[in-house]
Design brief:
alpha+beta, Phosphatase 2c, domain 1, five-stranded antiparallel sheet, 6 helices, 13 strands, about 25% helix
Length: about 325
């Protein structure tokens, strides 16, 4: 009797509206059984009702459709994946711009982005905004991607003794974004040219910032406690912790939990160009992307003059 091989990836996603009146997060995951390639795309929308939800859907639809279309060639054209991620983000930004031009009443809407491509045990990503990409390894959790908000600068001020920890935690500018997909120039993006190498036992969580209503030690504790369980069960425990928090101001939450089941050779022979793999101390680059007209292999960035910030209702305000 034929027996199917163990899938390389164990993946689950979850979404929760929280205390908001509407859902502005969008997430799509695609890890087909029988393949060694997976794609995940998440966007956290901003702009209020009838705007933030539209922005996140536009971004996820555009990025996912482009990556899915190209995914059949990722194995043999693996070094080009960062360029595909860049191109997809650029096209999503252009789609947001076109929508705003046709619907001026939603001007100011936008979305963060985290897009992942997995090839065997190698992970590529593009991120814009403050939606975190977490890695749990050896009982310790850390954020892999850059946080494009004012939070890192405020935390640096706390470490330098310029403000106390409580003031830093509650700082009104903490969630002010320094980069976002808004149909205009994108100041910064994070898209390493070399992949991050996953190990069996690693847990990857790509999430909107709504999960951060739980403090990171709490998230780490849950991931460690249930590290040997299926991704779906881990997702359920994270959602349960959000529910137990019962914060009336709870933001929308969406996330995907990804585990590497095994690191065996690919099930199918694939022709790949050589690619430099990196482990813990990989060389990282903050990609500066022209989100307006980027093509695979051709990208450059420009600074955003007035970074938007989330309001308490999840909307956008200009600083």
């Amino acid at each position: 009797m034929w027996k199917s091989p163990e899938p390389r990836f164990d993946v689950a996603s979850a979404i929760c509206q929280g205390g908001r009146d509407y859902q502005e997060d969008t997430i799509v995951i695609d890890f087909p059984t029988g393949t060694d390639i997976g794609v995940a795309v998440l966007a956290d929308g901003m702009g209020g009702h009838a705007a933030g939800d539209v922005a996140s859907k536009i971004v996820v639809t555009e990025v996912f459709s482009e990556l899915k279309f190209e995914s059949a060639s990722f194995g043999e054209r693996e070094p080009e994946i960062p360029a595909y991620l860049t191109s997809a983000a650029a096209n999503a930004n252009a789609c947001v711009r076109n929508y705003v031009m046709q619907n001026p009443r939603v001007r100011g809407m936008g979305a963060t982005l985290v897009s992942l491509v997995m090839v065997e045990n190698r992970m590529y990503w593009m991120s814009i905004g403050d939606s975190p990409l977490y890695l749990m390894r050896g009982g310790k959790m850390r954020q892999l991607n850059e946080d494009h908000s004012m939070a890192p600068q405020i935390d640096a001020m706390v470490r330098a003794g310029m403000i106390d920890a409580e003031a830093g935690r509650d700082h009104p500018d903490r969630n002010c974004l320094t980069s976002v997909i808004i149909g205009d120039r994108v100041a910064r993006s994070d898209c390493p040219k070399t992949p991050f190498t996953l190990e069996v036992g690693d847990i990857v969580v790509v999430t909107s910032d709504g999960l951060q209503y739980l403090d990171e030690p709490k998230i780490e504790k849950i991931l460690y406690k249930y590290r040997r369980r299926k991704s779906a069960e881990i997702a359920e425990h994270l959602l349960a912790a959000i529910n137990d928090l019962a914060d009336p101001e709870q933001d929308n939450v969406s996330f995907a939990v990804i585990k590497l089941n095994h690191n065996k050779p690919a099930t199918h022979a694939v022709r790949r160009k050589p690619v430099d793999l990196v482990e813990e101390n990989m060389s990282r680059t903050t990609r500066v992307v022209s989100i307006e007209d980027a093509r695979p292999g051709d990208a450059e960035v420009a600074a955003d003059e007035t970074p938007p910030s989330r309001t308490a209702s999840g909307g956008v305000s200009e600083r």
